[in-house]
């Protein structure tokens, strides 16, 4: 049922002010006259909103002036130091942090070693809080300027309630992780599935810029996927869409650590590569397989060839289910051996359903290691920035 | 970027009038006082909108009066004969039609035999137009009361442009089918993928009522899927999401008529059942396999058991990718042997990824054969009903 249209002046004012801030953020530097032209609002209204935003510290007048004919106009820009968010990326062997300013630039990175399987949720939260405190203090930032924390976590995440429902990488089940961080630091915190954070990042800053129908496949230890359509991350019923790794290929296939047989990730992730390789060579790391393949060793080339075939199948299955116009390949398995993207292309005639051939492009991730830190920072900005639309829901 | 809030009085009036019509449609019969209470608008405004809607013929005053205390109020209802739409379901061997009135009841059904593979798009359009004309004339309906036609077509459909991009069932490629019907009958026409129409129908009238995160699997000759989230059919990038049948299970598996190997539909559709059965028995129809299974013939029970296993795998893969709270099983393969739903349930421990177990229910379709006719009629109502929100886009 449609909602009644209300002519609430405060709501309208807030909405227009936010819109002007968004315009300045996206098109900076920009003059008052240009904003007036874009919004078709009166110059007086624009002037008033701009003054308010200046006073509140969100924007500032720059030394630049407009270059066209006529009277020189002062250019407006946002104030990067107005507010900050913190993006966190929890991986199997390390945790990465980034301090993102209001211009959505990550100005400080930080990384610590970590052993997911040997750390309790409590220890992990403690480590994260300690590092965030150190980072904020090193920068001499007042805590109230940090408006939120975003954390990308590998696993099935209840995004609305901030709960890690299940994470094979971390070995956690039903951990209310966002609340632990909030309680300790008194900073609002949002957590989300790592690949959903990553695709948001690719959409805002990376390979998916300008595409509105992008799927991302992440292959490392395990395999997963995410989808963004018209700027919205596709979440499914309870934020768990995209768990590609446990789709079944073969009911009599390889045993997976989830207890099922024939899961896709038993054919294509790092562990499956290493297990294959160990039949003929004493290796411990997937990079050794890649080195051997580059060295034209027959067994390694065969493994890489077969991996490319299964990546091709994965792409076909994603395209059949999600029908994207772009597929981004990401994760350590890809990033350590970019040549594999061409090999996948060679298989495409064999593995892609004919009506979909030519309807999408396959590209490697642009952002690589920092994507999740950036996306998590952006997620926190979207959720917690003052004035932003989302705030009314808190 | 957010849009500027405009205080356009006509738009607001139109919006509120449509809302009142929607309320009457959903909660009929209803009194003016109840509408006033729900909308929180003034009694005068409600009175004026109701008068307008009566004059325009969309609603009427009934003989019923309200039952509570106080002054008896006249109850309002919609006028079923105000406008009509026509729903069409094109299948391999028949085409079904339904005349849907403004109360969204299909009052007349019609069905004709048809051989998809032996008919050109032109012949098919001719047949459809002839039957629609006959149906409208039999009912003595003035043509201008039929505001639109909706058609469910098996295949990859460009929904916005009304083009059948690819249909294996019909043997068509790139046919601008909606335009043909429109040109012939001078009635606006929308076409969509059959399973997308079916899930809309299940959402509005059937098993998916009340669930907002429902996936549907259709298994007959071929296998496909659809998803509805918060009342919106999930379309993917170009309306082709859900092509489950050509996801690959095994790169060395059964050859599919699409030219690939190991497509899911080579393991689970009617043709695959028949082919399996013909190794040991001279059957031509899947119903013979089911009859034999009911008769406890070992080979037939084995085939049905294996089919249930692959349906279970299909459900796992849908749930991993879409994360729905309900999965509807539909199509001839299910509807001719409802017992299979229990057999699928028995496999679930083996085939469903553990974190998703218990997060969704599996139910057979309620609407069976008429779902697509009803959904197509509803689709046409949504698209073409006067006053409705969509009309502004035409």
TrEMBL record, chains A, B:
<dbReference type="GO" id="GO:0042732">
    <property type="term" value="P:D-xylose metabolic process"/>
</dbReference>
<dbReference type="InterPro" id="IPR049874">
    <property type="entry name" value="ROK_cs"/>
</dbReference>
<keyword id="KW-0859">Xylose metabolism</keyword>
<dbReference type="Pfam" id="PF13412">
    <property type="entry name" value="HTH_24"/>
</dbReference>
<comment type="similarity">
    <text>Belongs to the ROK (NagC/XylR) family.</text>
</comment>
<dbReference type="InterPro" id="IPR036390">
    <property type="entry name" value="WH_DNA-bd_sf"/>
</dbReference>
<dbReference type="Pfam" id="PF00480">
    <property type="entry name" value="ROK"/>
</dbReference>
<dbReference type="InterPro" id="IPR036388">
    <property type="entry name" value="WH-like_DNA-bd_sf"/>
</dbReference>
<protein>
    <submittedName>
        <fullName>ROK family transcriptional regulator</fullName>
    </submittedName>
</protein>
<dbReference type="InterPro" id="IPR043129">
    <property type="entry name" value="ATPase_NBD"/>
</dbReference>
<comment type="function">
    <text>Transcriptional repressor of xylose-utilizing enzymes.</text>
</comment>
<keyword id="KW-0119">Carbohydrate metabolism</keyword>
<dbReference type="InterPro" id="IPR000600">
    <property type="entry name" value="ROK"/>
</dbReference>
């Amino acid at each position: 049922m449609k909602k009644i249209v209300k002519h609430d002046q405060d709501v309208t004012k807030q909405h227009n002010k936010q819109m002007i801030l968004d315009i300045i953020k996206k098109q900076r530097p920009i003059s008052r006259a240009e904003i007036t032209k874009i919004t078709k609002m009166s110059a007086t209204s624009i002037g008033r909103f701009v003054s308010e935003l200046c006073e509140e510290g969100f924007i500032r007048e720059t030394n630049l002036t407009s270059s066209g004919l006529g009277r020189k106009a002062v250019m407006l820009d946002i104030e990067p130091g107005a507010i900050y968010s913190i993006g966190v990326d929890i991986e199997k062997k390390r945790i990465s942090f980034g301090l993102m300013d209001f211009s959505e630039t990550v100005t400080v990175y930080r990384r610590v070693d970590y052993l997911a399987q040997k750390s309790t949720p409590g220890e992990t939260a403690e480590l994260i809080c300690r590092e965030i405190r150190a980072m904020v203090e090193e920068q001499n930032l007042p805590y109230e300027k940090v408006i939120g924390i975003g954390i990308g976590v590998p696993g099935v995440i209840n995004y609305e309630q901030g709960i890690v429902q299940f994470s094979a990488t971390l070995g956690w089940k039903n951990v209310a992780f966002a609340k632990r961080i909030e309680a300790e630091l008194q900073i609002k915190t949002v957590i989300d599935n790592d690949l959903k954070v990553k695709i948001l990042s690719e959409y805002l800053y990376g390979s998916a810029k300008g595409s509105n129908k992008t799927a991302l496949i992440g292959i490392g230890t395990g395999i997963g996927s995410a989808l963004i359509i018209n700027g919205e991350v596709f979440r499914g019923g309870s934020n768990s869409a995209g768990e590609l790794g446990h789709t079944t290929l073969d009911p009599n296939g390889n045993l997976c650590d989830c207890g099922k047989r024939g899961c896709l990730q038993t054919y294509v992730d790092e562990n499956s590569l290493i297990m294959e390789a160990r039949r003929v060579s004493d290796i411990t790391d997937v990079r050794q397989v890649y080195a051997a393949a580059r060295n034209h060793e027959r067994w390694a080339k065969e493994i890489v060839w077969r991996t490319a075939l299964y990546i091709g199948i994965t792409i076909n299955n994603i395209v059949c289910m999600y029908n994207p116009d772009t597929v981004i390949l990401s994760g350590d398995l890809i990033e350590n051996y970019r040549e594999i993207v061409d090999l996948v292309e060679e298989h495409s005639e064999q593995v892609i359903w004919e009506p979909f051939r030519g309807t999408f492009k396959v590209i490697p991730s642009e952002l690589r290691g920092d994507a999740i830190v950036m996306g998590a920072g952006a997620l926190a900005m979207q959720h917690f920035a003052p004035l932003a639309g989302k705030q009314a829901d808190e």
